[in-house]
Structure formats: C-alpha cells, structure tokens
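Project outcomes to date are best conveyed with an example. Our students and postdoctoral researchers have been running inverse folding experiments weekly, and each run begins with a structure described purely in tokens. The record below, which covers 283 residues, was selected by the lab manager from last quarter's runs and is presented without edits.
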C-alpha cells in the first residue's frame, strides 16, 4: 500500500510540475526569472522545514498523527484557494510575459538539446540524499540524530543558494549554473572520503547544487524554447532529468557497493562534463 501511495504521489508531482513552471516563467519575466525561480525554491524549502517541525510539535502536544494531518489540511486548502483565486485574476498567465522571446516556434533549437544533455549529466552525477545518509550510517561517521541535522543544514544552504544563483542568472545567464555545478561537484569526495568536518562542508556544497538546480536550471528553459511550446519544453526537461536521476542513482548504488571511490569519480566526472556545454550557452 505504501508503494502505491508513493507512486501516486510521484505521478501527481509529475503532472503538476511542468504547468507550474510554465506559469512561473510567465509571472517572473518582470522581476527576473532567476530571482523568481530562486524565490520559489527558497519558499519551498521554508515550507519543507516548517511542515515537519509543526508535525513534530503537534505530536509532542497531542501524540496523534490524525491531529497532525488534520492541521496540515489547513495550508493545503489555503494553497488550493490561492490557486482558484489566481485562476480568476489571471486566466491567461502568458499575458504576464513582459516581452516575447525571439525564437522560432517550429521546434526546439540546438541550444535546447545541448542544455538537455548538460542537465542529464548533472542529474546522473548528483547523488541523492538517501545514499549519503546510508554512507553516514554505515561508516558510523554520524550518529542517527546528526543525519537529519546535516540534511537540515543542506536545505538551509539550498534556500540561500537558490536566491543567490537565481540573482546571478539574471546577470550572467546559464554561466551561473556552470559556476554552481563546478562548486557542487566537489561534494562527493568530501562526503564519501572525508571525516566529520569535511563531510559537513560536502553537505554545504551539495545544498549549493540542489539550490541551483531548483532555480537556475528551471529558469533557463524559457530562454531556450519557443513560447508556444514552453509546456512541452518543461515536460521534456522533467522527463529527461528524472530518468537521468534514476539512472544515476542506480549507478551510484552499484558503484558504492564496489568501492566509494568509483562513485566519487563518476559523480565528479559527470558534473564536470556538463560545464563546457553550459559555457557554450552563456550567450
């Protein structure tokens, strides 16, 4: 049953993410897409941290999961109400676009596909948190209580990095993602080969990568795709990125069982290979 619910939840995210990003791309054109997507990611992380803390607090006082989920119904209803109001206030989100991109509308240009290859390489080389947590637990590097603390640190860095690199994207374009990728590529040796202090630094760099991926990586799609095909562009992006992430996660797990050094090598190599591709798109 749990597996079915997880699949349904993932399907829901897959359905809502492309149209959400398309609407964000229209709405953020006036303030800068990098900043807009960065702000969205920062607020998302605030919610991701606040929600579990509220549940923990309610469980402490009430001791009931039913009461916790009943409370979480309130922000869910507020979110739906905001969406319904927005539907009436802004029935055509594309009208929020400040200026239309000067791109052909017949199909995706070569730059879009180069960007897809770069995004796929980043996804393949970026280890998911479960394998990081597994490493911390297996090696005894962190206590069970410290693992979520490290994750919280990474999520805090994620929020700050999303805003920072989002602003840089508005000034430097896709080159900002190349910079973020170069920085975050060093998380693997620090996390999998280092001691406590180096592992903490590695989690900080991992958070930088996550923040850039959730802001700059999505903000660049409108610059590389026709306006009329933006929904398809985001759908393809999420499909390619998701499949690449799955392949990378499977590969990471396999290599970790052989030797963590192999994982570190592939992680760094895959991300570094994406950097020249991103640099070619800086204009």
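After processing, the design step wrote out the following sequence:
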């Amino acid at each position: 049953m749990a597996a079915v619910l997880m699949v349904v939840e993932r399907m829901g995210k897959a359905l809502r993410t492309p149209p959400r990003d398309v609407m964000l791309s229209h709405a953020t054109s006036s303030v800068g897409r990098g900043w807009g997507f960065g702000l969205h990611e920062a607020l998302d992380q605030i919610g991701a941290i606040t929600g579990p803390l509220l549940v923990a607090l309610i469980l402490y006082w009430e001791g009931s999961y039913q009461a916790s989920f009943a409370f979480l119904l309130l922000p869910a209803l507020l979110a739906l109400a905001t969406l319904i109001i927005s539907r009436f206030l802004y029935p055509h989100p594309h009208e929020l676009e400040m200026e239309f991109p000067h791109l052909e509308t017949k199909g995706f240009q070569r730059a879009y596909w180069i960007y897809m290859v770069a995004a796929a390489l980043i996804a393949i080389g970026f280890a998911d948190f479960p394998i990081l947590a597994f490493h911390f637990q297996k090696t005894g590097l962190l206590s069970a209580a410290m693992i979520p603390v490290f994750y919280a640190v990474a999520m805090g860095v994620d929020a700050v990095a999303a805003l920072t690199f989002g602003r840089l994207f508005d000034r430097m374009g896709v080159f900002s993602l190349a910079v973020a990728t170069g920085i975050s590529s060093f998380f693997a040796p620090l996390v999998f080969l280092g001691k406590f202090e180096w592992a903490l630094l590695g989690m900080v760099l991992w958070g930088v990568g996550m923040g850039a991926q959730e802001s700059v990586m999505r903000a660049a799609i409108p610059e590389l795709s026709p306006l009329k095909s933006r929904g398809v562009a985001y759908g393809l992006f999420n499909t390619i990125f998701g499949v690449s992430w799955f392949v990378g996660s499977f590969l990471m797990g396999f290599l970790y069982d052989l030797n963590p050094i192999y994982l570190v090598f592939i992680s760094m190599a895959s991300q570094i290979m994406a950097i020249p591709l991103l640099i070619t798109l800086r204009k």
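Residues 33-62 form the longest helix (30 residues). The chain has one domain: 2-46+108-280. The training component of this project remains on track.
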